[in-house]
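User: Hi! I'm working on a homework problem where we have to compare a predicted structure to a textbook description. Could you give me the structure for the chain below?
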Amino acid sequence: MLCVLLPIHYHPGNGTEFYEFDNEKDAQEDVKDINMEIDALLLARELDITSLEAIARLVLGKDVSTMTSSEIKRDMLLFAKRYPSDFLDAADDPMLK
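Assistant: Happy to help. Predicted structure tokens:
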């Protein structure tokens, strides 16, 4: 298969799309995301097993009654690390209390 590479000036999107590189804005967004992850992990660590079970039922969508406390704790810590916003939202859900 013969592949012909066109020079960049022939690309149809050349000159129409630009990205402004802003280190400060990127750093602020990174700090915000990291802080949210830390908050979610700390909350997951501090919650009692009953609260973690309720959150696990909601976010994992499966029966957690067969899981041990350590498994629930581990899975909720991993979920909080991967999806901090979702974990914090689930923890604040008044229906779980």
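For your comparison, note the following. The mean pLDDT is 89. The longest helix spans residues 23-46. Good luck with the assignment!
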